[in-house]
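job 3f2a | input accepted
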Amino acid sequence: MASELCDGDGGVDEQLIPNAVPLRQESTVASFASSVFNVTHAIMGSGILGLAFAMANTGIIGFSILLLIVACLAAYSVHLLLELCQQTALTSYEDLGFQAFKTTGKVLVAVAILIQNIGAMSSYLFIIRSELPAAIAGFLHNHHGTPWYLSGQILLIIIVICIILPLALLRKIEFLGYTSGLSILFMIYFTAVVIVKKWFIPCPLFNGTVDYAQNFSSDECKPKFFQISYKSAYAIPTMAFSFLCHTSVLPIYCELKRPSKSKMQNVVNIGVTLSFSVYMLSALFGYLTFYGKVDAQLLHTYSQYLPHDALIMSVRLCLLFSVVLTVPLIHFPARKSLMLLCFSNRPFSCIHHIVVTLAIQILIVLLAMYVPNIQNIFGVVGSTTSAALLFIYPGLFYLQISREPLKSWNKLGALGLIILGFLMGVSSLILIILNWVHRAGGSV
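job 3f2a | predicted structure (444 res):
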């Protein structure tokens, strides 16, 4: 007989039968459709802006194969987490880490979530730094020099101090959960605009003042199906960054109406499929618009050639609105992880709350201001914490916790997931670091 396993804070009753199915209080029941929406919302984020660049450096077929592999592995690693959730009745990633490796496992998960969320927030602030000046300039057709209100760093500091920091300081921020759901609609709208604009931007590109035909060869307006370069190292980390939803899946499972592992797996499969479709379309048509000239941040590429286009300006404003409301939401689990690491055995303190909030905000602002390219954020975070949370930890925890025979399909799959995640993460990170070294030495 099923019993209530989740308390009001997402915790777990200590006296549980091993194979009980996690449930939740009736006040938090979520339908199948809303759970699909929540999973899709957890997946889709700023990573969509870097996927066209990934396609440009892997080719259409190469990118499609890699994206499909990462999507399937993401769904499979969630399958392992759901299996563990059913076997242990635990409903948080940190608790699974503790179950597997005690305090060490819980700390490893908390550190990975903290770094992952800092990377995500930094990427969002990077978007504010690069896109807000372009949005303002789009409404000012005649301006000379670079006035303060077109400085990305100044505007970023103003937005953080006046909007993001006050929201992040709140102890509860549920009301933003509803508005942040608009981000899915914005992603779909962004993809639709990318598809439409493909047919209105010629190749060779022309921005009104410089005819880029002089810099193009005939081959540069033809799509490449397979492509390998030093920039290809950013492809898989960007994809891993884009598909990570694992820290949200278990709470969503806990809230699902009449929860079962198979039902939640269907929710995840649909969410991953929808995200894969949106990612694939935006990357494909973004690449087919700019080919090898696509920037690491796709929207920035449009800004270079269509600075006053109404559709692009509307996408930019929607994206900025979504980013400003999403950063405080991502801040909450980041702060929770840091508080867990630093003040796990102490009661709530306003001073600790404020200090940790300010420390995180200062760090992400510095990263957004001084990291030269958003692909560096996707690359480093994607090859380290995204790879760990998406591939390595689910496999490790399954091998450690599950009582299945070592030769069972799930344990063999978990072992393969660990090996593949480790190889992809380490090789990508090494190539990214070598790329930095070569660029610093002027070799690239």
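job 3f2a | The CA atoms of residues 2 and 230 lie 53 Å apart.
job 3f2a | closed
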